[in-house]
């Protein structure tokens, strides 16, 4: 009889302990969720870091192209002005055919200058779009970085809670983890 009573007592004690620590299953589940979000946030942070650099490089390339077009346009403008001044100053020394060739050349230079102005507008628009993409990627990168910090703090507090078998650090860890999840979602959708 005593063995049966002892078995029953041990069984009750084990059930009591199991019920007392059943919250550890939820702690483990919440920690896994925080860890998955932290991993994804870290991945997205690195991905957006690369996007930031690539878009900055593309924007810089477009601005360099813009400068090249500006220089070429300036050369056409200077040449057209030089020919116009030459034509105006020495109009009598040129015959009609030479004058017409010079005027045609001046018109060609102005046409090229107009073409370069139009091309520069398109290049500027493209450079600004790359800058906008860079800025958005930078904002996402920063947001994912903040998410990683909060998520790791939540994981740390949950781990402390599991080791000490105290619920309070887990609750605080969950609250901090929720902040991290909000930043993670913001990194994806840019709510704020």
Could you give the topology of this structure?
Blueprint: H1 2-20, H2 23-89, H3 96-164, H4 167-189
Helix pairs in contact: 2-3, 2-4, 3-4
Keywords:
192 residues, mainly alpha, 93% helix, Helix Hairpins
Please report the number of helical segments: 4
Number of domains: 1
- Sequence stretches where pLDDT stays below 50 over 5 or more residues: none
The computed structural class is mainly alpha
Helix and strand succession? HHHH
* Strand segment count: 0
Strand content: under 5%
- Gyration radius from CA atoms, angstroms: 36 Å
Biggest sheet layout: none
Any idea of the CATH topology?
A: Helix Hairpins
Rough outline: rod-shaped
Query: What average pLDDT do the residues reach?
Result: 93
CATH class category name: Mainly Alpha
Question: In words, what does this structure look like?
Answer:
The chain is an all-alpha fold and 192 residues long. The protein has a single domain (26-189), classed as Helix Hairpins (Orthogonal Bundle). Helix content is 93%, strand content 0%. The protein contains 4 helices and no strands. The chain has helices spanning 2-20, 23-89, 96-164, 167-189. The longest helix is centred in the C-terminal third of the chain and has 69 residues, at 96-164. It starts with a helix and ends with a helix.
């Amino acid at each position: 009889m005593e063995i049966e009573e002892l078995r029953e007592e041990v069984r009750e004690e084990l059930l009591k302990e199991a019920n007392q620590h059943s919250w550890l299953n939820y702690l483990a589940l919440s920690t896994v969720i925080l860890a998955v979000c932290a991993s994804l946030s870290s991945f997205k942070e690195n991905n957006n870091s690369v996007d930031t650099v690539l878009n900055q490089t593309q924007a810089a390339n477009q601005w360099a192209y813009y400068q090249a077009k500006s220089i070429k346009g300036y050369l056409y403008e200077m040449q057209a002005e030089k020919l116009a001044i030459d034509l105006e100053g020495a109009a009598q020394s040129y015959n009609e055919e030479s004058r017409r060739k010079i005027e045609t050349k001046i018109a060609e230079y102005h046409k090229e200058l107009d073409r370069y102005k139009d091309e520069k507008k398109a290049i500027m628009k493209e450079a600004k779009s790359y800058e906008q993409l860079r800025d958005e990627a930078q904002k996402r990168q920063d947001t994912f970085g903040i998410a990683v910090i909060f998520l790791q703090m939540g994981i740390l507090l949950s781990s402390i809670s599991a080791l000490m078998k105290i619920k309070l650090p887990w609750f605080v860890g969950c609250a901090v983890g929720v902040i991290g999840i909000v930043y993670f979602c913001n990194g994806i959708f840019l709510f704020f």
